[in-house]
Design goal:
110 residues; SBP; Bact_solute-bd_prot1
């Protein structure tokens, strides 16, 4: 499930109807492209962020790939291709400043 603000999509010139939005965000790379919405609106695509968060977005992206911090044998997977790919993706979001740097459970996070 993806939650998004229709008004922000409309402000950026994107379609806002759920059936039209779904194909725009079918993959994480698609979501990165839609993240450029910040350039048009000044609004961020994710409240999970950089230094002010608990890195839950890393876990979310890893879990989606059926991966985690350790494998089934209990070995750390931080150097695995999935972990590296996840960190590279997050780095791309951070370098483009597409993530809101706000502590979780505060007004800015919502």
């Amino acid at each position: 499930a993806l939650y998004y603000r229709r008004d922000v999509f409309e402000e950026a010139g994107f379609p806002s109807n759920p059936d039209s939005v779904q194909p725009l965000v079918d993959t994480w790379d698609d979501l990165y492209e839609v993240g450029q919405i910040k350039t048009a609106t000044g609004k961020f695509i994710f409240p999970q962020a950089k230094t002010n968060n608990d890195f839950r977005i890393f876990e979310t992206l890893m879990w989606q790939q059926e991966a985690g911090y350790v494998d089934r044998e209990g070995k750390l997977t931080i150097n695995s291709p999935k972990a590296v790919r996840t960190l590279e993706y997050l780095g791309k979001l951070w370098r483009k400043d597409l993530l809101l740097d706000s502590p979780a459970w505060t007004a800015g996070w919502y």
